[in-house]
C-alpha cells in the first residue's frame, strides 16, 4: 500500500516573460503586461507531494524534517526573493511558472528517499496554478 504526504511552502520571486526567439512585437502579443521590461513579482505557493510505504517504525511516508531541509536547501534558498531571469537554470528558457514548476520538480526529484516525489504544484495567483509529475 502506498500513502501520500503533501506540504506547502511559500516563496516570493520576480520574473519577466520574454523570449529571445520572438520579436518585440511577438513578445508583447504573447506575454502582454508580463513582458514589462522591469519584470513583476509573485508570492508563489509551492506544494510538494511525496508517496511511498508507511515506515513501520515511524508511521510516516517521509521524515518531515528531511523534506523541509531539502525544499529549503534546493528551492527556497535558491529562488526566494530573487529575479528568476538571473538564475542559470533560466538562461536558455523563459521563466514561466510552467518552467518554474518543472525545474522545482527536477531539483527535488530523488532528494526525499525513500519516499518518491509524486507531484509539484505551484500556485502563481489565486486563479493560476501549474502541476508537474514525474511521468
Strand content: 25-35%
What CATH architecture would you give? 2-Layer Sandwich
Shape: elongated
Number of helices: 3
Gyration radius over CA:
17 Å
Sequence of strands across the biggest β-sheet: 3-1-2-4-5
**CATH class, please?**
Alpha Beta
Residue stretches low in confidence (pLDDT < 50, at least 5 long) are: none
Give the rounded overall mean pLDDT. 96
Structure description:
27% of the residues lie in helices and 30% in strands. It is α+β, with helices and mostly antiparallel strands and 135 residues long. The protein has a single domain, classed as Tetrahydropterin Synthase, Chain A, CATH 3.30.479.10. The chain has a five-stranded mixed beta sheet. Strand 4 and strand 5 form a beta hairpin. The longest helix has 16 residues, at 64-79. The radius of gyration is 17 Å and the shape is elongated. The two termini are 20 Å apart. The relative contact order is 0.21.
Short description:
The model has no long low-confidence stretch (mean pLDDT 96).
Features:
single chain; 135 residues; alpha+beta; 5-stranded mixed sheet; 3 helices; 5 strands; 30% strand; elongated
SSE topology:
Blueprint: E1 3-15, H1 24-31, E2 40-52, H2 64-79, E3 82-83, H3 97-108, E4 116-123, E5 129-133
Amino acid at each position: 500500500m502506498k500513502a501520500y504526504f503533501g506540504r506547502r511552502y511559500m516563496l516570493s520571486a520576480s520574473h519577466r516573460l520574454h523570449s529571445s526567439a520572438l520579436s518585440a512585437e511577438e513578445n508583447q502579443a504573447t506575454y502582454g503586461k508580463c513582458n514589462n521590461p522591469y519584470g513583476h513579482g509573485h508570492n508563489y505557493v509551492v506544494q510538494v507531494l511525496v508517496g511511498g510505504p508507511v515506515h513501520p517504525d515511524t508511521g510516516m511516508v517521509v521524515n518531515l524534517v528531511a523534506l523541509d531541509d531539502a525544499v529549503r536547501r534546493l528551492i527556497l534558498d535558491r529562488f526566494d526573493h530573487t529575479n528568476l531571469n538571473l538564475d542559470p537554470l533560466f538562461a536558455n528558457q523563459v521563466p514561466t511558472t510552467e518552467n518554474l514548476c518543472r525545474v522545482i520538480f527536477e531539483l527535488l526529484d530523488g532528494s526525499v528517499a525513500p519516499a518518491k516525489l509524486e507531484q509539484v504544484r505551484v500556485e502563481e495567483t489565486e486563479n493560476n496554478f501549474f502541476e508537474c509529475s514525474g511521468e
